[in-house]
C-alpha cells in the first residue's frame, strides 16, 4: 500500500540548516510529481514547493525562494527538502505529498505523509 514517511525534522537555530527526507513506497515514484507543504501552529496548510517527476523542474513559494531546495532520487524513491538560512517563521510540521500530472494538468492521486516537526528557535 502507499506510504510516504518524512524524516529529518528537529531543532535548528536561526540561520541554520536542516535536510528533510520523504521515503515513498507502494506506487511508481518516478511517475509522480512531489511537493512539500507545511503547517505552522494555529495556521493553515502552506505550499512550500514542488518538483517534476523526473526532477527536471522545481518551483517554490516566495517565502522560501532562494533558501530551500527540493531534490529527488528516483532510484531510492526519496524526495528531499534542503532548508538553509532558517527563520523563526519556518517553524511548522512539514509534509510531503505526491500526485500525477501531465503538462501541468492534475490527473489524480493525492498521497500524504504523516509529517515531521521543524522548530527554529534561538
Note the topology.
Layout: E1 3-7, E2 10-12, E3 18-25, E4 33-39, E5 45-51, E6 58-60, E7 68-73, E8 78-83, E9 92-102, E10 105-112, E11 116-120
Parallel strand pairs: 2-11
Antiparallel strand pairs: 1-3, 3-8, 4-5, 4-9, 5-6, 7-8, 9-10, 9-11
The amount of helix comes to under 10%
What gap, in angstroms, lies between the N and C termini? 40 Å
Count of helical stretches: 0
Radius of gyration (CA) equals 14 Å
Q: Mean pLDDT, nearest integer?
A: 97
**Largest sheet report:** 7 strands, mixed
**Topology pattern, helix = H, strand = E:** EEEEEEEEEEE
Strand content: over 45%
* Class computed from helices, strands and strand pairing: mainly beta
- Name the overall outline: globular
Report the count of strand segments. Answer: 11
Query: Which regions are unreliable across 5 or more consecutive residues at pLDDT < 50?
Result: none
What do these coordinates show?
The structure is a single chain. This protein is an all-beta fold and 122 residues long. The protein is built from no helices and eleven strands. The protein has strands at residues 3-7, 10-12, 18-25, 33-39, 45-51, 58-60, 68-73, 78-83, 92-102, 105-112, 116-120. Strands 2, 4, 5, 6, 9, 10 and 11 form a seven-stranded mixed sheet that branches. The protein has a four-stranded antiparallel sheet with strand order 1-3-8-7, with no helix packed on it. Strand 9 and strand 10 (105-112) form a beta hairpin. It is globular. 30% of the residues are buried.
